[in-house]
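Troubleshooting entry. Yesterday's outputs looked truncated, so today I'm pasting the complete records for two proteins to confirm everything comes through intact. If either block looks cut off, that's the bug. Protein one:
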Amino acid sequence: MEEESITSPLLQEEKVYHPGCPGCGNDRRKELQEGLPYKEFLYVWIVCLATCDQMVFFLLNVIEFLGLILTFKPFMAAPESRAV
């Protein structure tokens, strides 16, 4: 009985929350949440879709630019020999 009273305060930590601390707010939110965070999943899904859409357009522009550079004739033309 005496051992339980000695070890139990060590196992149970008293939580201290600081006002304005984002980590403390996140810990409180996790303690109050039950089940899956569908709202947060929706936010992440929207951000992923928006980023993917921008990435596709960026890659298409890079491919078009590379095609323009590779087909530009003055860089691919062989130099003419000059007859003096």
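Protein two, checking that the full record survives here as well:
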Amino acid sequence: MNVEDPRREVVIMSSRPVQVVHETTTVAEALRLLRHAGVRHLPVVDRGRCVGVLVDVDLVAAAVDGVGGGVGPIARRPVPTVALGADAPTTARAIRVGGMDAALVMDDDVVAGIVTATDVVEALAAREELPATAPAGVPDDRATGDDVRP
């Protein structure tokens, strides 16, 4: 979901509730959760604190390689994060610098959501699709649909 503030800065929000796993969750359990929830990233928590993030391709590779035990060791660290309410440019920078295609949205120290690069692209594209306001005194022909070509 994308929310636009009055300054036309696009604020990125997570598009669905965040699913989390514990470090002791097995690879098979994490894969089932990914499939069931329809997500590609799972934050890994320990005592309520995020300690890493699982990415679908890493879980698939672990399953193919027969990795057993908990998912803690295959979680990516450090985790790219943004504050709740971060705008699109801030979120895009965090994703790029973090080396993943997503960032966790944090509300204080609590994982509030996940924002993917796709979410950022969609938000920026939607912003560009918004009609610009015509300067005062200049009619906005786009509003009427009139063809003003000579």
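Both blocks look complete. Sanity check on protein two: Residues 7 and 76 are 35 Å apart (CA to CA).
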